[in-house]
Specification:
The chain is mostly beta strands and 652 residues long. The protein is built from no helices and 64 strands. Helix content is 0%, strand content 51%.
Length: 652
């Protein structure tokens, strides 16, 4: 690498050896070139083997250096292009690339595409063309500077610093911010139009950055931070976070709207914000809304997806208005929404997604709403404010509200689990319908009238079912494990009728009842139920009113009774000799004085009172029974297996 100097005093071609010091050769390899003090014009016609080193145009050079068509210039390293005087004119059909570009005197005229890592214009002149520009760091730090931007697209990937009151023309072009972290100080370089498509933060420190009409911007998972001014019109869609700082201004026109994937922070000291602008929060990344100065009062739409916890947070001293009858989509996180500030709505609110709602101690949730439908659970921390309005739950949920009076709750979560936490009261209202594969009451459920319940119910110690409940009409899903588990220390009201609806083949329904005194026990068999379907009563000395079985017209696999089961009457009958019912185990006691008569039963290991008599007509004694009388209606044979009627074999 050699240092070469242009010595021509008249116009010569770059390829003319007489124009260079020594007069014997042109530059080659990575030679560095210096123009001045001789002022001959240089026409860069053919660079030969010169691969592009560095060019310095001295302040003592007053000539013109002209790049010809097709002669692309690539300069590398620190100080790769320094212009202090003269004129450097590029061709529209050639590119110019300099790792470091500095103009502090003279004039540089862009031709074709321009690329520079560091771009600095001091007291010199830069004149853009219509071709693209691409720079990393931009420094415009001299009041004597004069810059005309390209009328095309100027891609800026680093800091933009126009700190001096230079002469500037945006030339109708676009500045495209991209890449990593950038700070824009642009009070002295007002833009025509800007785009943002980057992965890092963009800080608008001073000046105005115009996004134009209906802009789409992205900072990935990072943010746009505004202390200067940002303008747009129409619908702005932004991927990332937006923060408007003290002194910052955001101006939206033409009925502006904003859609954000992440957080919004509005400093109480900001200068201006489109107050009534509607805002939508979407995407799968976490959002926190912070607006302590109540700068935004427009309607908010929440449309989040994914499993982050939390995915949407309303910060303290912030109010988010959801508007009339809103639908919120909140993802599936175990703590998806956290309300530390205030969220308001009117009419019926619908929350889709399996996410859990949490209202913190300082939170105020759904002020003004008339009802809320949740897809997940709810926690209201002591001190939080939550309205007493109708609630409905459609997905797996845990309800924790230790110091809150909830409105009437409708629970229909399919085969999913639903839990009422300790010290929490969930009112189901009058004659409700509840569906839950696993309904656990560790707190209190209040209910009155006839409770239509499908699924499994667990009442552990500390759990309470209270209210004027007269009947539970219990159905299950297909399969085993759907039980009424009432013998673990919880409180169940006295005198409640239990209706067991055997609706599914293969269903195994068990009532674990401890020593509860019930009303009647009615077991109803669907016509479609037969093989592998059963009802089991376990516990100790359960007391019922009338025990009855209504046949569905097909044989039924079995009813198992616990020891010490007491009833006022017993009416358990199969439908026919081929549609019998099995009765298995336990001991049965009647508080009545009249004979108990049944028919079409298969009975095994069952003990009944000797008085009054328990007689089974047209039934099968499978052994292990005590005090049962087996009677044929045709022969009148008593206390033996009947041979006078069509007796079907036991199912196996």
């Amino acid at each position: 690498m050699a240092a070469r100097t242009w010595v021509a005093t008249v116009e010569k071609n770059f390829s003319d050896v007489s124009g260079w010091d020594g007069g014997a050769s042109v530059p080659s390899g990575a030679d560095t070139l210096t123009y001045g003090p001789n002022d001959g014009n240089c026409i860069i016609d053919n660079v030969g083997s010169w691969t592009g080193g560095k060019i310095t145009v001295g302040s003592d050079y007053s000539g013109v250096i002209t790049q010809q068509s097709g002669i692309n210039i690539v300069l590398a390293g620190a100080g790769s292009f320094v212009q202090q005087g003269g004129t450097f004119t590029c061709h529209a059909s050639a590119t110019f690339t300099a790792a470091s570009f500095s103009v502090t005197g003279g004039t540089f005229n862009q031709g074709g595409a321009f690329v520079s890592t560091t771009f600095a214009v001091g007291a010199g002149v830069y004149v853009g063309s219509s071709a693209t520009m691409s720079t990393t760091t931009v420094t415009l730090n001299s009041a004597s500077g004069n810059v005309t931007a390209t009328s095309g697209i100027w891609t800026a990937t680093g800091t933009w610093n126009a700190s001096a009151a230079l002469t500037w023309s945006a030339n109708g072009g676009t500045v495209a911010f991209s890449g990593g972290t950038q700070t824009v100080t642009a009070a002295n370089s007002p833009f025509n139009f800007c785009t943002v498509n980057k992965t890092g933060n963009l800080t608008i420190s001073t000046g105005t950055v115009p996004f134009g009409a209906n802009p789409t911007t992205t900072c990935g998972t990072n943010q746009i931070s505004v202390t200067g001014t940002l303008t747009f019109s129409g619908n702005w869609v932004h991927t990332g976070t937006l923060a408007v700082n003290s002194g910052g201004t955001v101006t939206g026109t033409s009925t502006p709207t904003l859609a954000l994937t992440q957080s919004l922070t509005l400093d109480s000291g900001l200068t201006s914000w489109p107050t009534t602008m509607p805002i939508t929060y979407n995407g799968t990344t976490a959002t926190t809304v912070t607006d302590t100065g109540a700068k935004s009062t427009g309607t908010t739409t929440v449309s989040k997806s994914g499993s982050l916890s939390p995915i949407f947070t309303v910060a303290a001293s912030t109010t988010v208005a959801l508007g009339a009858s809103p639908t919120l989509t909140i993802g599936s996180g175990v703590n998806a929404v956290v309300i530390t500030g205030t969220i308001t709505a009117t009419g019926a609110v619908v929350c889709t997604g399996a996410g859990h709602f949490s209202v913190d101690a300082s939170g105020v949730a759904f002020s003004g709403a008339s009802s809320i439908a949740f897809g997940g659970g709810l926690t209201v921390t002591s001190g939080g404010t939550f309205p007493t309005i109708p609630l409905s739950f459609s997905g797996a949920a845990t309800i924790t509200a230790t110091a809150t009076t909830l409105g009437t709750c409708t629970v229909s979560v399919g085969s999913a689990a639903f839990t009422v936490a300790a010290s929490t009261t969930v009112p189901l209202g009058a004659s409700p319908t509840t569906v839950s594969g696993f309904f656990t009451v560790a707190g209190t459920v209040t209910v009155s009238g006839v409770w239509a319940f499908t699924g499994a119910l667990a009442l552990p110690s500390g759990g309470t079912i209270s209210g004027s409940l007269t009947e539970i009409s219990w159905s299950s899903f297909s399969g085993a494990g759907y039980d009424l588990d009432l013998d673990n220390g919880g409180a169940w009201p006295t005198g409640v009728k239990v209706k067991v609806n055997l609706l599914h083949g293969g269903a195994a329904m068990t009532l674990r009842a401890g020593t509860i005194t019930f009303g009647d026990l009615e077991i109803i068999q669907s016509a479609a139920v037969g093989a592998s379907t059963s009802f089991v009563l376990t516990g100790n000395s359960n007391t019922f009113g009338a025990i009855s079985f209504v046949s569905g017209g097909t044989w039924f696999h079995g009813i198992t009774f616990t020891a010490g089961t007491v009833c006022s009457s017993f009416s358990v009958n199969g439908g026919s000799p081929t549609a019998y019912c099995e009765v298995v185990g336990g001991s049965l006691h009647s508080t009545g004085s009249t004979e108990i008569t049944c028919q079409y039963l298969h009975i095994q290991n069952s003990t009944v009172d000797a008085s009054p008599e328990w007689n089974a007509f047209n039934s099968v004694d499978l052994g292990g029974n005590v005090n049962w009388g087996f009677v044929s209606s045709e022969t009148g044979v008593y206390r033996q297996r009947s041979r006078g009627h069509r007796i079907v074999p036991r199912y196996s």
